[in-house]
Write a structure and sequence with these properties.
By secondary structure, this protein is mainly β. It has one domain: Ferrous iron transport protein A (FeoA) (SH3 type barrels), CATH 2.30.30.90. It contains 2 helices and 6 strands. Strands 1-6-2-3-4-5 form a 6-stranded antiparallel β-sheet. β4 and β5 form a beta hairpin.
Amino acid sequence: MPVTTLDRLPFGKPALITHLTAGAAPFRHKLLAMGLTPGCHVRVIRVAPLGDPLEIEMRGFHLCLRRSEAATIAVEELAS
């Protein structure tokens, strides 16, 4: 399956977080504390009208992330 970043994931497509990239260093602890850990299943639900932030679904709840934060989360697309 192709590996991409969360900000480039198509709407509704399920994915698995593989790792946080080096660009996540300034807010790595924040992302990990929110549950964005390797092995977590995520799905992009929608994007705000101006393109930022993204709303994702993970672990049974919805979370909004800035596009710059989502760009530091590497994901592997899963089959629908």
